[in-house]
Amino acid sequence: MPPETDHSAPVTIACIQFEPKIGELAANLEAIETRVRQAHANGARLIVLPELADSGYVFDSAEELADLAQPIPEGISAQRLIALAAELGIHIVSGLAEAADGGFYNSAMLCGPEGYIGTYRKMHLWYRENLFFRKGDLGLPVFDTPLGKIGIAICYDGWFPETFRQLAINGAEVICVPTNWVPMPDQDPQTEAMSNILHKAAAHSNGLFIACADRVGTERGQPFIGQSLIIDATGWPLAGPASREDEDILYAQITPADVPAKRKLNEFNDIFGDRRTDVYS
């Protein structure tokens, strides 16, 4: 990791909500680049893209995934994003289908103006992902960047409080969440999405900025719910939820160095400091 950096400057973060097309790698990368350039032109310095943004999500077979997955950072998708981040002088977090060690991971890559920074591999696999991907084996890394200390989670990882707690303990200030949220069982589709409830709660209870970039559309019969969201470290939304059906780009300004102050609820209570680690197992 790079040396300690000053995170006191405000940062404009953008979440890109779009509709990747299954198997259309070149078209997806073109769509990503167009939207990243638009977000950069609007001042974004940290840009978050959806889960498996380069490949699409609903694979028919392992053979189909094998044709699309690539190594990180050497693969076509990773190199395209790395070059784009370097050209524009920005940081990008994108979900990518990763080929590694003779298998596949549902991964996300962080890159910046100086190139490749790191990879996170999704730990909690959802539904048919278990047929194609290995469970992530890189833990929950936190990357110290000039913008702030960045952690990454992917979609179903957000259903586990331990994900955000561990990232917070590891020093994260901002969590980027590439995701492909789907409808939850028994939920009225007109009410607030469970995904948004969970991530607002995680932001509040850990004092973290959280930026969730979802996709939209229906792929091979599977609908996705959109509603991307950028959340303050207090738990209240800064931008979004975005549309349930339409492509969108959300923007918000955050200051990662504000995390310690935002964790203080009053003169007696600190949402992180009040933890009873003497009794927690």
Automatic annotation (TrEMBL):
Pfam families linked: CN_hydrolase
- Top-level taxon: Bacteria
Zinc is among the record's keywords: no
The UniProt transmembrane annotation reads: none
Segments forming domain CN hydrolase? 11-256
Q: Which InterPro entries does this entry report, sorted A to Z?
A: Aliph_Amidase/BUP, C-N_Hydrolase, C-N_Hydrolase_sf
Q: Which UniProt keywords apply?
A: Hydrolase
Against PANTHER family, the record matches this protein to: BETA-UREIDOPROPIONASE, NITRILASE C965.09-RELATED
Q: What is this protein called?
A: Nitrilase family protein
